[in-house]
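Q: Hi! First time doing this. I have a protein sequence and I read that you can turn it into a structure. Is that right? Here it is:
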Amino acid sequence: MINKIQDELDKTRSEKEELEEEIKLRDRQFEVQLNYEVQRAKERIRKNTQIRRRQRETLADFAEEVQDERSGQAWLMTFADMFTLLLTYFIILYSLSSINMNRFKEAILGQEQASIGLLELMDAAEIKESLDVLTGLKSDNILTEVKNVAKVESLSDVMTISTDQSKIIVKVPSQSLFNEGDAILNLGRGKKVLDELIRLTGKYPEYKININGHTDNSEIPNERFASNWELSSARATSVLRYFIDQNIDPKRMTATGFADTFPIATNKTERGRALNRRVEFVLEKEN
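A: Yes, that's right. Below is the predicted 3D structure, encoded as structure tokens:
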């Protein structure tokens, strides 16, 4: 009886861990979607700011020309002032209609369960957006492009994107690139995601590419590799060689195997082990 109860407790604990991992995965996906929408909003504000700057410069030039004229047409100054006021009014209306964080909140909260943490995330996005507008800061376009590729090219199931300070981390499950226990690239499954990453990294040569192989803690099912260290290193190297074959500068890249030393999920469940078996592409801008 005690053994049966213990088995039930282990089963319940395992199911709980799986649910927690699934919730974390959904949170990460939601954060990616939120960051992508915020980036799009910031880009619209930047374009509107450029338009307003050009219009102000044009109006300033026009006003100087009117002041220099000595033909007695003083009504032009009044007309220019009125035109400036009207233009400012319509620019403000356009800006207010271009981005509405309240409507954005409602749209997101209609899909995800409302919570205090989610509201705090929304408020943080608003504060960050306001600071970026005031200071003129903007993030690298490569982050936006990577997220856009994952969404538009239907690769969100095989690409998980996150950031760590100045680094962009793209996680790709090993099963999308390799057969079980093997280090030879399966291009039938992985060519699309690899080619998209090659296209993006080729477009931004100022970024270093660190290719990291990771495994779960299971034993190697064959004798080709002595341990997970050899397997993870061989997989990272296979990806690096494919990038070199596609004319990516080898001086920009490194390949490292970490075996099971950096898990992102529990190794007690199949789902957790699948998440831990991955190849990470760490993009870091060179100083």
